């Protein structure tokens, strides 16, 4: 303890003596240097090293962050560039698709026009076919009619040959009577009175069918001229029977009364002042007569006594 106190005392004394030996400026300079030495002696080396390490770590972290940011920017830029390329490629594809679409639209419009032309041509062909079918039907009807006339003429050749000895040309000899009927449509139809006058001019009169034999013969003769396409009202033949003097009392031209008639069902009915009788070609020979107005025009049937 004494040695420690002694040292302290000596140090303090020396210090005090030293201070007294220096001037004020020197004392100040010395004091500052002493402070610096005291300050340097107070800072520890471990604290400086830790501070340096922390700074180094911070810089390293910052460098890593900057590197990551740089890499991210590079990747982003790369993706952005790829996106731009992709957009460019898509634009090119869209342009190609638009061109294909425009071509398809043009082809479709041309196809529509072609289809319209085809439909128009098809409609014209259809109309032409209908026209040709009508012509063919007309030709068939004319052919059938001519065939019927030929058949009728052939069937009456023997009667015409016999009639040449007993009847006028164009008349037919059947059951010992000369008959005339205009089988051709070229001959103009006549009213009942006009038809009778024609027969009288030839030396005969309208037919008087007063027996079943005559009726069957006449019905067979007229049956060769049945025309399915002709209206029934146009296919009749006037005969010499009427009820002009008394309604419902039918008489022949020689004033003899009708004994047996061959009326169509529901006839005679006297609708519209029907006072004259016409015979119609029918399959059933017992249903061939009809009362009709005397002023309509029909074909007719004449008869004459053979020569």
Helical percentage:
55-70%
Number of strands: 9
CA distance, first residue to last residue: 207 Å
In CATH terms, what is the architecture of the largest domain? Roll
Q: What is the average of the pLDDT values?
A: 78
* Class from secondary-structure proportions: alpha+beta
Apparent shape: rod-shaped
Alpha plus pi helix count: 6
Biggest sheet overview: 5 strands, mixed
- The structural domain count equals 2
By CATH, the topology of the largest domain is Mannose-Binding Protein A, Chain A
- N-to-C SSE series? HHHHEEHEHEEEEEE
Q: What fraction of residues sit in β-strands?
A: 5-15%
What value does the Rg take, in angstroms? 70 Å
Low-confidence stretches: 1-43
Provide an overview of this structure.
With 307 residues, the protein is an alpha+beta fold. It has 2 domains: 56-155; 170-304, Roll (Mannose-Binding Protein A, Chain A), CATH 3.10.100. Helices cover 59% and strands 10% of the residues. The chain is built from 6 helices and 9 strands, in the order ααααββαβαββββββ. The chain has helices spanning 2-21, 24-42, 45-155, 157-166, 192-201, 212-222, and strands at residues 172-174, 177-180, 205-206, 237-242, 251-252, 276-279, 289-292, 299-300, 302-304. Strands 4, 5, 6, 7 and 8 form a 5-stranded mixed sheet that branches. It has a 4-stranded antiparallel sheet with strand order 1-2-9-3. Strand 4 (237-242) and strand 5 form a beta hairpin. The radius of gyration is 70 Å and the shape is rod-shaped. Mean pLDDT is 78; it is low at 1-43. Residues 174-303 form the C-type lectin domain. Keywords: Disulfide bond, Lectin, Membrane, Transmembrane, Transmembrane helix. Pfam families: Lectin_C.
